Amino acid sequence: xxxxxxxxxxxxxxxxxxxxxxxxxxxxxxxxxxxxxxxxxxxxxxxxxxxxxxxxxxxxxxxxxxxxxxxxxxxxxxxxxxxxxxxxxxxxxxxxxxxxxxxxxxxxxxxxxxxxxxxxxxxxxxxxxxxxxxxxxxxxxxxxxxxxxxxxxxxxxxxxxxxxxxxxxxxxxxxxxxxxxxxxxxxxxxxxxxxxxxxxxxxxxxxxxxxxxxxxxxxxxxxxxxxxxxxxxxxxxxxxxxxxxxxxxxxxxxxxxxxxxxxxxxxxxxxxxxxxxxxxxxxxxxxxxxxxxxxxxxx
Length: 299
Ligand code: SF4
Ligand code: SF4
Known about the structure:
Bound molecules: iron/sulfur cluster
Strand content: 15-25%
Helix content: 25-40%
Number of helices: 11
Largest sheet: 9 strands, mixed
Number of domains: 2
Number of strands: 11
Order of helices and strands: EEEHHEEHHEHEHEHHEHEHHE
CATH topology of the largest domain: TIM Barrel
Structural class: alpha/beta
Oligomer: single chain
Strand order of the largest sheet: 5-1-2-6-7-8-9-10-11
CATH architecture of the largest domain: Alpha-Beta Barrel
Protein backbone atom coordinates (compact mmCIF):
# COMPACT_ATOMS: atom_id res chain seq x y z
CA UNK A 1 0.00 0.00 0.00
CA UNK A 2 1.47 3.39 -0.99
CA UNK A 3 1.33 6.46 1.22
CA UNK A 4 -1.28 7.86 -1.16
CA UNK A 5 -3.58 4.93 -0.25
CA UNK A 6 -3.62 5.82 3.44
CA UNK A 7 -6.51 8.16 4.16
CA UNK A 8 -8.27 9.57 7.20
CA UNK A 9 -11.44 11.58 7.74
CA UNK A 10 -10.58 14.96 9.24
CA UNK A 11 -12.86 17.80 10.33
CA UNK A 12 -10.30 20.58 10.65
CA UNK A 13 -6.61 21.44 10.69
CA UNK A 14 -6.06 24.26 13.15
CA UNK A 15 -2.90 26.19 12.35
CA UNK A 16 -1.12 28.39 14.90
CA UNK A 17 -2.69 26.46 17.74
CA UNK A 18 -1.29 27.19 21.21
CA UNK A 19 -3.69 25.09 23.30
CA UNK A 20 -2.74 21.53 22.40
CA UNK A 21 0.83 21.17 23.56
CA UNK A 22 3.94 23.37 23.68
CA UNK A 23 4.78 26.17 21.24
CA UNK A 24 3.00 26.94 18.00
CA UNK A 25 1.34 23.83 16.60
CA UNK A 26 -0.96 22.50 13.95
CA UNK A 27 -3.75 20.49 15.54
CA UNK A 28 -5.36 17.90 13.28
CA UNK A 29 -8.90 17.00 14.31
CA UNK A 30 -9.70 13.44 13.26
CA UNK A 31 -13.37 12.51 12.90
CA UNK A 32 -15.13 9.94 15.06
CA UNK A 33 -15.13 9.20 18.79
CA UNK A 34 -16.34 6.20 20.83
CA UNK A 35 -17.25 8.48 23.77
CA UNK A 36 -20.29 10.72 23.99
CA UNK A 37 -19.43 13.43 26.54
CA UNK A 38 -22.45 15.77 26.68
CA UNK A 39 -20.17 18.82 27.10
CA UNK A 40 -18.04 17.98 24.01
CA UNK A 41 -16.90 21.23 22.39
CA UNK A 42 -16.09 19.47 19.10
CA UNK A 43 -19.41 17.71 18.39
CA UNK A 44 -18.55 17.71 14.68
CA UNK A 45 -15.84 15.18 15.58
CA UNK A 46 -18.11 12.65 17.28
CA UNK A 47 -19.55 10.82 14.26
CA UNK A 48 -17.00 8.83 12.23
CA UNK A 49 -18.77 9.65 8.94
CA UNK A 50 -18.90 12.85 6.90
CA UNK A 51 -21.94 14.90 7.94
CA UNK A 52 -24.14 17.68 6.63
CA UNK A 53 -24.18 20.93 8.59
CA UNK A 54 -26.46 23.92 8.07
CA UNK A 55 -25.73 27.58 8.80
CA UNK A 56 -29.21 29.11 8.99
CA UNK A 57 -27.88 32.68 8.99
CA UNK A 58 -26.33 32.18 5.53
CA UNK A 59 -29.46 30.76 3.86
CA UNK A 60 -31.13 33.08 1.33
CA UNK A 61 -34.06 30.74 0.66
CA UNK A 62 -33.22 30.16 -3.02
CA UNK A 63 -34.21 26.45 -2.81
CA UNK A 64 -31.33 25.35 -5.05
CA UNK A 65 -30.70 22.61 -2.48
CA UNK A 66 -34.24 21.24 -2.73
CA UNK A 67 -33.99 21.05 -6.53
CA UNK A 68 -31.07 18.62 -6.41
CA UNK A 69 -32.24 16.54 -3.44
CA UNK A 70 -34.77 13.77 -3.94
CA UNK A 71 -35.84 14.23 -0.32
CA UNK A 72 -36.42 17.98 -0.61
CA UNK A 73 -33.19 18.93 1.21
CA UNK A 74 -34.01 18.14 4.82
CA UNK A 75 -31.99 19.70 7.61
CA UNK A 76 -29.02 17.87 9.20
CA UNK A 77 -29.98 14.97 11.41
CA UNK A 78 -32.96 13.93 9.25
CA UNK A 79 -33.18 10.15 8.90
CA UNK A 80 -33.83 10.31 5.14
CA UNK A 81 -30.63 12.25 4.38
CA UNK A 82 -28.25 9.98 2.45
CA UNK A 83 -25.21 12.24 2.96
CA UNK A 84 -24.71 12.54 -0.78
CA UNK A 85 -23.82 16.25 -0.37
CA UNK A 86 -25.41 17.25 -3.69
CA UNK A 87 -27.12 20.09 -1.80
CA UNK A 88 -23.72 21.32 -0.60
CA UNK A 89 -22.50 21.66 -4.17
CA UNK A 90 -25.74 23.39 -5.19
CA UNK A 91 -25.87 25.90 -2.34
CA UNK A 92 -24.59 29.34 -3.50
CA UNK A 93 -23.97 30.74 -0.02
CA UNK A 94 -22.30 27.82 1.77
CA UNK A 95 -25.27 27.58 4.09
CA UNK A 96 -24.96 23.83 3.59
CA UNK A 97 -21.53 22.39 4.21
CA UNK A 98 -19.91 19.01 4.39
CA UNK A 99 -18.21 18.33 7.71
CA UNK A 100 -15.38 15.84 7.29
CA UNK A 101 -12.98 15.51 4.38
CA UNK A 102 -10.74 12.62 3.41
CA UNK A 103 -7.04 13.45 3.50
CA UNK A 104 -4.25 11.25 2.20
CA UNK A 105 -1.10 10.92 4.25
CA UNK A 106 0.91 12.86 1.68
CA UNK A 107 -1.66 15.67 1.51
CA UNK A 108 -1.73 16.00 5.27
CA UNK A 109 2.05 15.97 5.61
CA UNK A 110 2.38 18.64 2.92
CA UNK A 111 -0.23 20.78 4.66
CA UNK A 112 1.19 20.68 8.18
CA UNK A 113 4.82 20.97 7.07
CA UNK A 114 4.02 24.37 5.55
CA UNK A 115 4.33 25.73 9.10
CA UNK A 116 7.46 23.85 10.10
CA UNK A 117 9.46 27.06 10.58
CA UNK A 118 6.97 28.14 13.26
CA UNK A 119 7.27 24.77 14.99
CA UNK A 120 11.06 24.93 15.10
CA UNK A 121 11.26 28.55 16.26
CA UNK A 122 8.59 28.18 18.98
CA UNK A 123 9.30 24.69 20.28
CA UNK A 124 5.98 23.58 18.80
CA UNK A 125 4.92 20.78 16.49
CA UNK A 126 1.86 18.83 15.41
CA UNK A 127 -0.95 17.43 17.59
CA UNK A 128 -3.35 14.66 16.56
CA UNK A 129 -6.70 15.34 18.21
CA UNK A 130 -10.37 14.77 17.48
CA UNK A 131 -12.79 13.19 18.02
CA UNK A 132 -10.49 10.37 19.00
CA UNK A 133 -7.34 10.33 16.89
CA UNK A 134 -6.69 6.71 17.90
CA UNK A 135 -9.69 5.62 15.81
CA UNK A 136 -7.26 6.30 12.95
CA UNK A 137 -4.33 4.73 14.80
CA UNK A 138 -2.56 3.19 11.81
CA UNK A 139 -2.76 6.44 9.87
CA UNK A 140 -1.59 8.47 12.89
CA UNK A 141 1.38 6.14 13.48
CA UNK A 142 2.53 6.64 9.87
CA UNK A 143 1.85 10.38 10.09
CA UNK A 144 3.87 10.77 13.29
CA UNK A 145 6.66 8.57 11.94
CA UNK A 146 7.04 10.88 8.94
CA UNK A 147 6.85 14.01 11.08
CA UNK A 148 9.52 12.69 13.42
CA UNK A 149 11.72 11.95 10.40
CA UNK A 150 11.31 15.64 9.50
CA UNK A 151 12.32 16.65 13.03
CA UNK A 152 8.79 17.73 14.05
CA UNK A 153 7.55 17.25 17.64
CA UNK A 154 4.42 15.07 17.86
CA UNK A 155 1.63 15.09 20.45
CA UNK A 156 -1.30 12.68 20.78
CA UNK A 157 -4.50 14.04 22.35
CA UNK A 158 -6.49 11.00 23.47
CA UNK A 159 -9.37 9.99 25.70
CA UNK A 160 -7.66 6.65 26.30
CA UNK A 161 -10.52 4.81 24.62
CA UNK A 162 -8.18 2.71 22.48
CA UNK A 163 -5.15 0.87 23.82
CA UNK A 164 -3.15 -2.31 23.22
CA UNK A 165 -0.96 -2.76 20.17
CA UNK A 166 -2.54 0.04 18.09
CA UNK A 167 -1.70 2.49 20.88
CA UNK A 168 1.86 1.16 21.19
CA UNK A 169 2.36 1.65 17.45
CA UNK A 170 1.41 5.34 17.75
CA UNK A 171 3.35 5.87 20.98
CA UNK A 172 6.51 4.64 19.23
CA UNK A 173 6.46 7.92 17.25
CA UNK A 174 4.95 10.25 19.89
CA UNK A 175 6.76 12.85 22.02
CA UNK A 176 3.91 13.96 24.28
CA UNK A 177 0.50 12.60 25.30
CA UNK A 178 -2.40 14.89 26.21
CA UNK A 179 -4.76 12.72 28.25
CA UNK A 180 -8.34 13.56 29.21
CA UNK A 181 -9.77 12.65 32.60
CA UNK A 182 -13.45 13.28 33.22
CA UNK A 183 -15.73 11.28 35.49
CA UNK A 184 -13.88 8.93 37.86
CA UNK A 185 -16.84 6.92 39.18
CA UNK A 186 -17.17 3.87 36.87
CA UNK A 187 -20.98 3.62 37.00
CA UNK A 188 -21.49 7.33 36.39
CA UNK A 189 -18.84 7.31 33.67
CA UNK A 190 -20.75 4.61 31.80
CA UNK A 191 -24.10 6.32 32.36
CA UNK A 192 -22.98 9.78 31.18
CA UNK A 193 -20.21 9.05 28.66
CA UNK A 194 -21.46 5.73 27.34
CA UNK A 195 -18.30 3.63 27.73
CA UNK A 196 -16.54 1.87 30.61
CA UNK A 197 -13.90 3.67 32.66
CA UNK A 198 -11.54 0.79 33.71
CA UNK A 199 -10.17 0.07 30.19
CA UNK A 200 -9.56 3.80 29.71
CA UNK A 201 -7.50 4.01 32.90
CA UNK A 202 -5.63 0.88 31.82
CA UNK A 203 -4.75 2.53 28.49
CA UNK A 204 -3.63 5.70 30.26
CA UNK A 205 -1.32 3.59 32.41
CA UNK A 206 -0.04 1.99 29.20
CA UNK A 207 0.92 5.46 27.98
CA UNK A 208 2.63 6.21 31.29
CA UNK A 209 4.58 2.94 31.13
CA UNK A 210 5.80 3.82 27.63
CA UNK A 211 7.91 6.62 29.11
CA UNK A 212 6.27 9.43 27.11
CA UNK A 213 5.65 12.73 28.89
CA UNK A 214 2.01 13.31 29.85
CA UNK A 215 -0.23 16.32 30.35
CA UNK A 216 -3.55 15.53 32.03
CA UNK A 217 -6.53 17.69 31.01
CA UNK A 218 -9.80 17.75 32.90
CA UNK A 219 -12.88 19.72 31.84
CA UNK A 220 -14.46 21.27 34.93
CA UNK A 221 -18.17 20.77 34.25
CA UNK A 222 -20.54 21.72 37.08
CA UNK A 223 -22.62 18.77 38.18
CA UNK A 224 -20.51 16.30 36.21
CA UNK A 225 -16.80 16.55 37.00
CA UNK A 226 -16.47 19.29 39.62
CA UNK A 227 -17.55 17.38 42.74
CA UNK A 228 -14.89 17.12 45.46
CA UNK A 229 -14.81 13.31 45.29
CA UNK A 230 -14.41 13.31 41.52
CA UNK A 231 -11.65 15.91 41.59
CA UNK A 232 -9.87 14.03 44.39
CA UNK A 233 -10.04 10.75 42.47
CA UNK A 234 -8.74 12.44 39.30
CA UNK A 235 -5.94 14.11 41.25
CA UNK A 236 -4.99 10.80 42.89
CA UNK A 237 -4.83 9.13 39.49
CA UNK A 238 -2.76 11.98 38.05
CA UNK A 239 -0.39 11.86 41.03
CA UNK A 240 0.16 8.15 40.46
CA UNK A 241 1.58 8.72 36.95
CA UNK A 242 5.37 8.62 36.66
CA UNK A 243 5.63 10.74 33.50
CA UNK A 244 3.19 13.53 34.36
CA UNK A 245 4.39 17.03 33.44
CA UNK A 246 1.35 19.01 34.54
CA UNK A 247 -2.41 19.11 34.89
CA UNK A 248 -4.57 21.54 32.91
CA UNK A 249 -8.09 22.37 34.12
CA UNK A 250 -10.47 23.55 31.41
CA UNK A 251 -13.61 25.43 32.49
CA UNK A 252 -16.84 24.28 30.87
CA UNK A 253 -18.19 26.84 28.39
CA UNK A 254 -21.15 27.03 26.04
CA UNK A 255 -19.32 28.20 22.93
CA UNK A 256 -20.02 24.90 21.18
CA UNK A 257 -23.80 25.14 21.55
CA UNK A 258 -24.37 26.64 18.05
CA UNK A 259 -22.43 23.74 16.52
CA UNK A 260 -24.95 21.27 17.94
CA UNK A 261 -27.70 23.24 16.24
CA UNK A 262 -25.84 23.28 12.92
CA UNK A 263 -25.50 19.48 13.15
CA UNK A 264 -29.18 19.04 14.02
CA UNK A 265 -28.42 17.59 17.44
CA UNK A 266 -29.85 18.52 20.84
CA UNK A 267 -27.53 20.25 23.31
CA UNK A 268 -27.98 18.51 26.64
CA UNK A 269 -26.19 21.00 28.91
CA UNK A 270 -28.14 24.19 28.18
CA UNK A 271 -28.93 24.60 31.89
CA UNK A 272 -25.36 24.16 33.14
CA UNK A 273 -23.76 27.39 34.35
CA UNK A 274 -20.00 27.69 33.62
CA UNK A 275 -17.75 27.57 36.70
CA UNK A 276 -16.62 30.84 38.28
CA UNK A 277 -12.98 31.82 38.77
CA UNK A 278 -13.38 30.79 42.43
CA UNK A 279 -14.73 27.38 41.39
CA UNK A 280 -11.68 26.89 39.16
CA UNK A 281 -9.30 27.86 41.96
CA UNK A 282 -11.06 25.42 44.28
CA UNK A 283 -10.56 22.67 41.70
CA UNK A 284 -6.92 23.65 41.26
CA UNK A 285 -6.33 23.43 45.01
CA UNK A 286 -7.31 19.74 44.97
CA UNK A 287 -4.52 18.97 42.48
CA UNK A 288 -1.99 21.31 44.05
CA UNK A 289 -2.55 19.58 47.40
CA UNK A 290 -1.00 16.51 45.79
CA UNK A 291 2.03 18.50 44.69
CA UNK A 292 0.97 18.63 41.03
CA UNK A 293 1.78 21.55 38.76
CA UNK A 294 -1.73 22.66 37.82
CA UNK A 295 -2.66 25.29 35.24
CA UNK A 296 -6.01 26.80 34.35
CA UNK A 297 -6.89 27.25 30.67
CA UNK A 298 -5.02 30.21 29.19
CA UNK A 299 -2.18 30.21 31.73
S1 SF4 B 1 -26.88 15.45 1.66
FE1 SF4 B 1 -27.99 14.61 -0.12
S2 SF4 B 1 -29.76 13.55 0.79
FE2 SF4 B 1 -28.92 14.90 2.40
S3 SF4 B 1 -30.09 16.80 2.22
FE3 SF4 B 1 -28.25 17.06 0.94
S4 SF4 B 1 -28.84 16.41 -1.14
FE4 SF4 B 1 -30.41 15.66 0.30
S1 SF4 C 1 -29.31 26.28 -1.53
FE1 SF4 C 1 -28.38 27.12 0.33
S2 SF4 C 1 -29.07 29.25 0.38
FE2 SF4 C 1 -30.42 28.19 -1.07
S3 SF4 C 1 -32.19 27.52 0.19
FE3 SF4 C 1 -30.73 25.82 0.16
S4 SF4 C 1 -29.50 26.15 2.02
FE4 SF4 C 1 -30.55 28.07 1.61
